[in-house]
Amino acid sequence: MCGRFNLRSSASSIAQQFLPGVDGSFLSDFAPRYNIAPTQSIYCVLRPAVGASRQMSLFRWGLVPSWAESAGIGNNMINARSETAIEKPAFRAAMKSRRCVIPADGYYEWLATSEGKQPYEFSRQDGRLLAFAGLWEQNKRVSPNDHPLLTCTILTTSANSFASRIHDRMPVILADEDIDTWLDPGMKNAEAVRQLMSPAEEDILQVKPVSKRLNYVQNQGPDLLQPPEQLDLFEPLDSSPEPSD
Given a cut of 60, is residue 172 above it in pLDDT? Predict the structure, then answer.
């Protein structure tokens, strides 16, 4: 699964990779975040209509379907299994025409060790941002004002061999050349979309242990990425879910 991630690149870098022709100045309030958790606001890249340009906006992490009567349902929908999302009532409509990309520098998974749960960060070897495949929704029933509640979820898939040393699931990471197809709301070919949700290539990721301070969602800052002293890269290899908030 994917229950925590970070986004620490500059606004200009994010815009350059995901919003061609945009300088990133509209992200004037952007600040690096090192411990992003469910129910928080996260950036999503989408195309709201066929032929529209890419846009990036803040969405609440945890998808709330348009028919839901309570926003609390989103707390259990931070991830969607790519293998079954098209069949699930909560995700079926979004899979057809409301697909998005969630930029991230890295995501975290945890191992159970003799000294407690140890977090690890997965990131790209080449330093580029990860492009998580996601779904978005708008709900007018639970919004406290006239604006619909905008929410999203991150799609997951079976882990590749590299990532499976820590967890058996991983976020769907889109290749650059597949992003336009994924974002196109006019792409209705379910099988073509399904093929984009395969595990990432084995050689694009790197992994490192990071500070256990990450286990507490209120902690922030670049020091969270500092590896603990005298820790082997994998010790031991029993997988465990990330700690609760």
Answer: yes
